[in-house]
Amino acid sequence: MKRLCTICARGGSKGLPSKNIRLLEGKPLIAHTIEQAKRLRHLFVGIAVSSDSEEILAVAREYGVDFAIRRPDSMATDTASKLPPIQHAVEAVEAALSIHIGAIVDLDPTSPLRGDDDVVGAVALFDKTGCQSVLTGAPARKSPYFNQMEWDEGGFVRLVKPLANPPFRRQDGPQVFDMNAAVYVWRRDRFMVDPKVFYEDSQLFVMPEERSWDIDNLIDFEFVQLMMAKEKQQ
């Protein structure tokens, strides 16, 4: 099956400005994901970076991606989904190579602690099950059945998902997972006509918490720096 690796990186970021090119361990954040994709090149017919930022695209070219794709401005607003830029990238690569992609593997540049084995494992699960999509996640630290709260219509606090027989320990409730945005795998034909994360047969590839940090703000970034520095010392 022909697989395309997509890496989507918008130029604007409210939580951490210019985070995708912020230096992490001496190189731009997005470079860590590009280098990982290149280590796993045997999985892909191409590696494509999609961005609205010429600065990000220049970094992508410097680090050797196959396709640096300028997305339309309409796909780069603060409220825009990442799914249309992936569709746009698939169309661009298919036109350039005159091929039909079978699967899309999206690697988020804000998840640099993701391991190579996590990508390989998610792809293997996708191939084994024949599902429409695989997403990665980690065991949740908080449970909607035990200690996650929300306001109800009257302004009073309640559990997000109360049970008829509530557990006395979080571990006794239904197992729940946090989406970690590290890896998404989609079947191309379904995704291109019906782009979404969850389908009726979507599968979960479970990653450990220590590799599941998604950088959204400075605290996240500093935590990842700490984890990377610790790993280098081992």
From TrEMBL:
- The name this protein goes by in its record: Post-translational flagellin modification protein B
- InterPro entries in the cross-refs: CMP-NeuNAc_synthase (IPR050793), Cytidylyl_trans (IPR003329), Nucleotide-diphossugar_trans (IPR029044)
Q: What is the lineage of its organism?
A: Bacteria, Pseudomonadati, Pseudomonadota, Alphaproteobacteria, Rhodospirillales
Respond yes or no to whether keyword Protein biosynthesis is given for this record: no
Keywords from the named record: Cell projection, Cilium, Flagellum
Q: Does the keyword Cell membrane apply?
A: no
Q: Which domain of life is it from?
A: Bacteria
Which Gene Ontology terms cover its molecular function?
N-acylneuraminate cytidylyltransferase activity
Q: Which gene encodes it?
A: ptmB
